[in-house]
Amino acid sequence: MTGIKFGKIERETIHLCIDMQRIFLEPSPWFCKQGIEILEPILALIRHQPYKSWFSQFMTPNNSNEMENSWERYYEYWKPLTQDHLEKGMLDIHQGLFQESSTPQIFEKFSYDSFKNTELDKELKSLSVKTLIITGVETDVCVLATVFSAVDLGYRVSWLQMQRQVPISCAMILY
Fold this sequence. Notes:
By secondary structure, this protein is α/β, with parallel strands linked by helices. It has helices at residues 22-25, 33-37, 39-48, 69-77, 95-100, 120-126, 139-152; strands spanning 13-18, 53-58, 106-109, 131-136, 156-159.
């Protein structure tokens, strides 16, 4: 099948770029080589409509004690990637992507889902956004969690998959 299912993309559309951060794009235990490979297509999308690209940013806590239950265990394991131990700026959005967006909004999240405990849904609804174009790294974790929530919240989702398969090496080890 060619074309876009369910008709044209509406004007009230936002591109949500998920977790394209230094921690995934530069040498670190969470480095994902495929993130580098999808930089150019994402940059092209942002350049096409720079005023309609927003970002979600995966944040780690200062230390594992700030989290509860499974997340506390998770960050005990990933202690070197908590903010108390991480190199400054490693959680920043890739500069090239951020600079291309004329009105960058960043939604910080402490879980996989970009909608959980953020103002993302409220901001989208305030602009009458009906459709999301979703890109990002860690497609089998954070992108997927966000896509599921977006659909549950009633958004039309266009998920741009730029890789056929994401190897397990790009997935954060689950708790």
